[in-house]
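Histidine kinase: structure tokens wanted.
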Amino acid sequence: MTVLDRLGVREAAVAAPASSERDTQEPWFVRHQRRSLAVALGLFAAVTLLRFLSGADLTTGTTMLYVLPVSLLALSHGTAAGVAAGAAASAAVAVWSGVAQVDIGLVGWATRALPLVLAGYLLGDASDRLRRAAEQRLEHEAAALRHRQAVEVNDLLVQGMAVSKWSFEAGRTEAGLRALEETIETGQQLVSRLIKDADAGGRVMD
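Answer:
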């Protein structure tokens, strides 16, 4: 019977947790940023086409549909992308007003451009904050796991050495040597596994 068996310690107790936890919890537009970018560009094109097809009518509210691609880019790519998307939507409105020869006016610009840029900023900032919070939570969980693993390894080695000491003191030299060899071997296995799991976790994070 090995030291692990006597102490009731399972090898799985020091195994690394699943590294894809964050990926499975994130929405599709965060996990697939290229796809979300393509969808946002498609929405931009569709809204712009609809805006031009609507003619010079300012009462249709078509411009506010730009909030869809702006929000998508802000949530998937962060603050900078959200603000840039809002500015791009405002530029598209400016192009339409120039082509259609529509005088939107100062109030019209304020009620169209400002909400788009502001939505891009606020949603992007919220997305960035949530992403940083999730990363910090995973880092804290990883640190807690490493602490538990270190405690388990320490307890295992200390108890194994204690068994060896008691065997030697009782004059059971062979049993003491066997327990010492098992403790050393088990410690090497656990440390090797921890190093392997740490390397695997680093590659996943990269």
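Confidence is low (pLDDT under 50) at residues 1-19. Residues 39 and 89 are 15 Å apart (CA to CA).

Cheers.
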